[in-house]
Recover the amino acids of this structure.
């Protein structure tokens, strides 16, 4: 039932600006893949094309052999049901409470589900992310870390096969970062066959949670491998990024 | 010369593109009204916002419009001794023109702008992307209930405006201006048809469609943070306001012959 995802030669431009210039990447089934790269290289664009929120200009995205870039809107909707996404700035609905945010996908898609069952599932999802007490709160009452966690709960509540996180820990303090990393890891370990893709530029966190790491640079994946490979890689761009050095091929 | 031609061409192209995008957006939203899933709760929430929320401003606008119109018309009619026609003339103007147009312009300022701002904020904070990522059609979820609610509530608001306006006219005419109440009310009943009222309500449904679809459209395609949302809101209110007046003229042209053969 579960499939791996293969991205082949993915291209996306905005006007004259070429953002993705042939991205090749495989997301192995049941693993966490972390894509790293400088800000503005197109990591968010990669995630959005992956879910069909943006149409790529070229290349393909194969899920279990089916190229989703060629699907019509309706079929694309069905594919999206297999995904959960945590947006960079959480993107919670600010007209709703935390509880209603997490309940939203259930109420929309599982319309026959009894409200008691919805409540049971949402409470469980909120407890998983440490927000058991915060269900009644409004989104604007939450701290940045709580928002991220609520967004994770919303993305997980329907038990997706693929989970995409866009910079889940950017802007959080180190302790909250460790907590969210822990959360991602435990979501992964508790969900059979979950395939995750995480966008990050936090090298420490990447080393902790990744099964596989890939670096996006100037529109292409320039290096991929295990976290250990990245620690020892001699690729100059990777070295500069991993070590956080000023000198190197990347000029600011 | 060549420059100004290509500049003009660019502007025309952008306008055509914009209108095309608006048409596509609106079509999707209208299809979204008839297609399942039906989200009654969202519809009622919008009806409450558009209807209840606008009731007081519409009532105040209506009563003062009626009153001032009574004063001005009394002055004009007094010049050729036709003060008995005051009631019927003013109420005709209210139900046929001022009711639908002023109601829609007031509601546009309140509701059209709110729709543009709300959807615009949802766009720039990626809430619309989030809806889409959850396999929900964001146009159907956001725009369809807002458009339907506006089309349903504007006629009711317009009828309120008419009624309150007529009360304003009657009060000023009979108490302040000392018009003889007998002929005043007789003529009013005689000249004002239910067709006039229905026509005004039909117009306001059309204006409700315009102001909500334009508000939603501008918000939906807003970009560039808070400033972009502000621009989208301004554009929506201005475009809908102007369009309401333009469309009013053409709808009046179509509706006018239908009521010519009155007794
Ligand atoms: N909808 C869009 N329209 C035009 N340009 C865009 C759009 N989305 C992203 N871009 C551009 O694409 C580039 C990559 O953006 P993004 O994927 O957000 O970077 P990041 O790697 O930091 O997530 C940026 O230069 C950005 O300006
Ligand atoms: Mg990004």
């Amino acid at each position: 039932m579960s499939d791996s995802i293969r991205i082949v030669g993915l291209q996306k431009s905005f006007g004259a600006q070429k953002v993705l210039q042939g991205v090749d990447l495989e997301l192995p089934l049941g693993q966490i893949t972390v894509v790293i790269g400088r800000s503005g290289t197109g990591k968010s664009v990669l995630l959005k094309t992956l879910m069909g929120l943006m149409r790529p200009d070229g290349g393909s995205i194969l899920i279990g052999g089916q190229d989703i870039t060629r699907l019509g809107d309706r079929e694309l909707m069905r594919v999206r049901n297999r995904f959960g996404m945590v947006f960079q700035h959480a993107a919670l609905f600010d007209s709703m409470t935390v509880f209603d945010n997490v309940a939203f996908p259930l109420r929309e898609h599982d319309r026959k589900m009894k409200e008691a069952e919805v409540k049971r599932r949402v409470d469980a999802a909120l407890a998983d992310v440490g927000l058991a007490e915060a269900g009644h709160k409004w989104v604007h009452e939450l701290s940045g870390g709580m928002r991220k966690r609520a967004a994770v709960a919303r993305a997980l509540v329907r038990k997706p096969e693929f989970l995409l996180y866009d910079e889940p820990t950017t802007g959080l303090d180190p302790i909250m970062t460790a907590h969210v990393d822990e959360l991602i890891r435990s979501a992964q370990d508790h969900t059979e066959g979950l395939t995750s893709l995480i966008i990050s530029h936090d090298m420490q966190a990447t080393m902790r949670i990744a099964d596989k790491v890939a670096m996006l640079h100037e529109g292409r994946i320039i290096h991929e491998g295990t976290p250990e490979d990245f620690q020892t890689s001699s690729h100059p761009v990777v070295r500069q990024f991993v070590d956080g050095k000023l000198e190197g091929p990347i000029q600011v | 010369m060549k420059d100004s031609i290509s500049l003009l061409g660019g502007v025309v192209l952008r306008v055509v593109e914009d209108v095309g995008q608006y048409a596509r957006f609106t079509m999707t939203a209208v299809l979204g009204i008839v297609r399942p899933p039906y989200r009654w709760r969202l519809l009622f929430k919008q009806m409450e916002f558009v209807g209840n929320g606008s009731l007081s401003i519409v009532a105040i606008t209506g009563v003062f419009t009626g009153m001032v119109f009574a004063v001005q018309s009394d002055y004009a009619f007094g010049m050729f001794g036709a003060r008995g026609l005051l009631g019927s003339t003013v109420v005709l103007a209210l139900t046929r023109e001022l009711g639908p147009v002023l109601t829609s312009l007031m509601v546009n300022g309140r509701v059209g702008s709110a729709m543009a701002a709300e959807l615009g904020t949802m766009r720039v904070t990626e809430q619309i992307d989030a809806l889409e990522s959850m396999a929900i059609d964001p146009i159907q979820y956001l725009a369809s209930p807002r458009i339907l609610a506006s089309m349903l509530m504007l006629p009711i608001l317009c009828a309120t405006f008419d009624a309150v306006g007529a009360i304003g006219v009657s009060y000023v005419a009979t108490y302040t201006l000392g018009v003889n109440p007998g002929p005043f009310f007789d003529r009013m009943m005689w000249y004002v048809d239910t067709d006039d009222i229905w026509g005004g309500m039909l117009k306001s449904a059309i204006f409700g469609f315009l102001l909500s679809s334009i508000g939603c459209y501008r918000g939906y395609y807003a970009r560039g943070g808070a400033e972009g949302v502000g621009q989208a809101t301004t554009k929506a209110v201005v475009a809908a306001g102007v369009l309401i007046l333009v469309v009013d003229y053409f709808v009046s042209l179509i509706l006018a012959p239908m009521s010519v053969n009155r007794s």
In short: Chain B has one domain: 41-262. Chain B has a mean pLDDT of 93. The interface with chain A takes residues 37, 122, 125-127, 129-130, 132-137 of chain B (CB under 8 Å).
